[in-house]
Amino acid sequence: MIGVDGKQLGVVSLGEAINLARASGVDLVEIAATATPPVCRLVDFGKFRYEQSKKDKESRKHQHANKVKEIQLSPKIDPHDLGVKLTHAIDFLCEDMKVKLVLKFRGREMAHTEYGFQLINKFIADTALWGHPDSTPKLVGRAINLMLSPLPRAKRAKNPKEEDEEREPMKDNDQSPDDEDEKD
């Protein structure tokens, strides 16, 4: 048995333990039921539950939940649309999310799956600075599936979007003070 102050009181009978708990004005809580003899503690049960919930919350904070974002492509995608999808994928990878690429074939497009594989390989090459494929692209039914995982932060390139935002404030101040005098 463990006392209110955290010190061990030794092996105590159940009746004695209950009497000690009542005398101290606290609860008798069984901590390790499978141990021989079972370990109990004298503690305020409400406070004990509150501290346990705080510990559980703290441990959950440090766990990393993998989020997966899906990007759908088609073999006839326009180059600009592909660029937009590429920037979305880079943004997701920079935010430590996995990216699932799905290239869907429709109708006669299945006759030339090699175009789809070329597009996927181009996509892998373009995102190589931010992420790597978990496996090779696979044709499953009428779609090619691929999962991209982000590289560790130390090995990953910076997000190009953030670099553009750093440069833009300079463009706003292009007007010289002489231009303002001419307006008056």
The ordered string of helix (H) and strand (E) elements is: HEEHEHEHEEEHH
Please work out how many helical segments DSSP would assign: 6
Low-pLDDT runs of 5+ residues are: none
- Major sheet description: 5 strands, mixed
Would you tell me the structural class of the helices and strands? alpha+beta
- Terminal Cα span: 87 Å
Helix content: 40-55%
What value does the Rg take, in angstroms?
Answer: 31 Å
Strand content: 15-25%
Provide the fold topology.
Elements: H1 14-24, E1 27-32, E2 39-43, H2 45-61, E3 68-73, H3 79-94, E4 98-104, H4 113-126, E5 131-133, E6 138-140, E7 143-150, H5 160-172, H6 177-183
Parallel strand pairs: 3-4
Antiparallel strand pairs: 1-2, 4-7, 5-7, 6-7
What would you note in describing this structure?
The chain is an alpha+beta fold and 184 residues long. The chain has six helices and seven strands; from the N terminus they run αββαβαβαβββαα. α3 links the parallel β3 and β4 (98-104). The N and C termini lie far apart (87 Å).
